[in-house]
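Lab meeting, item 3. Inverse folding demo.
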């Protein structure tokens, strides 16, 4: 499952390739928009919102309508961008999780010419939630999201709002609430494990066990920002020198970097959302000991 930092990087690559391009071909291979032809449209910008991708476009004269093409990577989506004859995937840039995808998985195909005269094409492979809406109505698609942790215009009130959202979720399990994009947007499976570790809390501990929700929001934001421009994700900062790396995620059976206890894996899904299957969460059973059982059972 892509994290907000991955989506941020993909959007940066898409924006660099497509902004200003005049489309010669624009196909949406989804039933809802199968008849749409975006030929003649101009791409204005590509922006992330949490883990959602927003491609803003302007239509041909005389109407010059403003539309936003929305998509989401969900679990396996990725974008391939070809510009100046080179084929590359933002995900392929040194990332271990790059995987080959056949062209027939394309749900969005955009081709055009950039202002500098070079041809460009972008394919959204296995992307989901493809929607085309007037730009003024973007909020219908992303308005439910909490503050976007990678929002370049982040302000103290965003921290306060996300912290208030966490407090409101006090009885829910921390490991589930961190994935709830309505609380704050951008955290995926990797960061939820890492944040629980850094807070020294078991993922099944209630959100109310957080000593300072605003500090947790700032922690999450710092982790995503550190990794926004990196291809090899790290949450351990300078503590491990140049090795970098993660505290718990993907380290099953390996020693905790703090206490040496073996890292374990559990599965934790949101009971309120049938569409969200149980996902793996990694933890140190010693650093992140569960509070007493009665306390935990009161967590919904
Ligand atoms: Zn430990």
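The presenter then showed the designed sequence:
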């Amino acid at each position: 499952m892509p994290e907000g930092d991955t989506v941020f990087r993909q959007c940066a690559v898409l924006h660099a390739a497509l902004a200003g391009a005049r489309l010669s071909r624009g196909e949406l291979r989804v039933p809802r928009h199968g008849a749409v032809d975006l030929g003649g449209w101009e791409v204005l910008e590509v922006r992330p919102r949490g883990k959602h991708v927003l491609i803003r476009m302007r239509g041909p004269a005389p109407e010059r309508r403003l539309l936003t093409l929305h998509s989401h990577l969900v679990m396996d989506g990725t974008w391939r961008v070809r510009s100046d004859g080179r084929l590359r995937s933002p995900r392929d840039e040194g990332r271990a999780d790059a995987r080959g995808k056949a062209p027939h998985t394309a749900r969005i195909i955009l081709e055009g010419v950039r202002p500098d005269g070079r041809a460009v094409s972008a394919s959204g492979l296995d992307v989901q939630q493809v929607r085309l809406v007037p730009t003024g109505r973007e909020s219908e698609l992303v308005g439910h999201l909490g503050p976007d942790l990678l929002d370049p215009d982040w302000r103290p009130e965003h921290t306060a709002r996300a912290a208030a959202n966490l407090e409101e979720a006090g009885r829910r399990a921390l490991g589930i609430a961190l994935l709830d994009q309505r609380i704050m947007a951008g955290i995926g499976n990797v960061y939820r494990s890492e944040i629980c570790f850094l807070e020294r809390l078991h993922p099944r501990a209630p959100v109310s066990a957080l000593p300072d929700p605003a500090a947790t929001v700032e922690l999450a934001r710092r982790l995503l920002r550190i990794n926004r421009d990196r291809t090899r994700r790290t949450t351990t900062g300078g503590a491990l020198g140049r090795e970098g790396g993660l505290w718990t995620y993907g380290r099953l059976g390996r020693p905790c970097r703090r206490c040496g206890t073996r890292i374990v894996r559990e599965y934790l899904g949101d009971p309120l959302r049938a569409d969200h299957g149980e996902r793996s969460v990694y933890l140190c059973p010693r650093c992140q000991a569960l509070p007493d059982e009665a306390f935990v059972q009161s967590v919904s």
